[in-house]
Structure formats: C-alpha cells, structure tokens
Amino acid sequence: MAEPLKIVEGRALTAQQKKDLLNRLARIEGQLRGVQKLIALAAEPADCEAVAQQMAAARKALDRSFVQLLTASVVTHSEAADDIDDARAVAARLAALLDKFA
C-alpha cells in the first residue's frame, strides 16, 4: 500500500482542509478502481449500464471535491486577507478559477 502523503503547512489550505480533500480523493480513487474491475468483467450489454452508473458517481464525487477545494480556499484566503482590498483580490482570483475550471 502507498505511504500517506506528508501534509505541508502553508497558506493555501489548512492541514484539516487538506486532510479532508485527500480522504475524499482516496475514496474516489477506490471508486475508479471498482469501475476498472467492472469494465474488465463486463460480459453482457447490461453490464455497460452498471459501468456508466459508477463512472457518473465517480465524476460527481470529483466535482464535489472541486467545490470543496474552492470553498476551503475562499474561507482560508479570506480569513488571511490583510484588508478589504486584499480580500477583494482574493475573491477575484477565486472567481477566475471558477470561470476557468467550472
């Protein structure tokens, strides 16, 4: 089994936020391994529906982790803002991320 990732202290996210995201991603990784097994074992046309259902669930879980990342970033970066102008700059950067990736 892979060794757990070392969580680095910094200003991007809190250690707890990182831990929560890493746990969520580990669950998604398990879902994807399950999808791979379903594909490998697919023998009947109906098996494709089960694969599609599990792929959709994994995709939705990954979308939720993306929202969790951005939500954590909003909280952490806003709290660290020195003043209102800094908070506005943080908000503008996060809005740009949403526009680019969502």
UniProtKB/TrEMBL annotation:
The Gene Ontology biological process terms listed for this entry are:
negative regulation of DNA-templated transcription
One Gene Ontology MF term: DNA binding
Cross-referenced CDD domains: CsoR-like_DUF156
According to its UniProt record, which protein family does this protein belong to?
A: Belongs to the FrmR/RcnR family.
Q: What is this protein called?
A: Metal-sensitive transcriptional regulator
Originating species: Massilia litorea
